[in-house]
Amino acid sequence: MLYSYCGHSGVQLPRLSLGLWHNFGSVDDFGVATQMLLRAFDAGICHFDLANNYGPEPGSAEVNFGRILREQLASHRDEMFVASKAGHDMWPGVYGTGSSRKNIIASCDQSLRRTGLDYFDIFYSHRYDGVTPVEETMEALIQLVHQGKALYVGISKYPPAEQALAYKILKEAHVPCLLSQYRCSLFDRKAQRQNFQLAADSGSGVICFSPLAQGLLTGKYLNGIPEGSRAAKQSGFLQKSQVTPERVAAARQLQQIAEARGQSLAQMALAWVLADARVTSVIIGTSSVAQLDNNLQTLDKLSFSTDELQAIEAIVADPALSF
Q: What is the reported pTM?
């Protein structure tokens, strides 16, 4: 495994981190989830990314992670960097969502109980909700650090103005933002243009999720929508309408470049995100040990030639590809 320092801190993270957004919930195969997490840890992935609402059912990914940690990896807690977040819908009533102090503090307490942890290595505000003052949300994160419930804090998906304000408040409180989490892929470069440099200038690391555009950059959809795939489901984060002819055609062209590099499309897509010097780590989501192993091979070739980057840019510059 390769590691990178996180912003202006002494924390190192693996270039590939394991996300438990999908495939670790109560509806998933616990045995497979256990195998994937153990394989990831054995391969040097020490950063595990959770959120209070990951499942389904919401909260069940934290429960399953805690069970695996307790039953298989209890003696290795200090070798791990565990993240969780709060801000999206989680429980009924007006306090079960959003970025208020009430929700942030209650969510962290619940997440600690579900995982069985004494503290999180980092706890995020999962989103700017458009209502709660940034000052209130950041004060809640600062409180978690002072209470010993989190060692570090981070923000996720914050717009540029709110992102900059969050950094200022946290810095003044001597609880700097360790990580800023944004969606980024060859088909989604908005954060790369709008948020990454703000993070770098403020000393925050950047960690990216959905680097494979919910599977569109894996080669899975090059010949239609497979049965059982994310896009084939009635609900989810990838809809059939998003598997457009333009994105499929672009993926085919990108796969040709990847094959010439000796990589799969997924491996090249991950390497492309990691090629940005401002990116500390990329969160991968896997459904099998074989898929995890394939992603790990990304690290065998992270560099790109100028010609390769220009060829990739010529393909992904099409506005029709962007989410």
A: 0.93
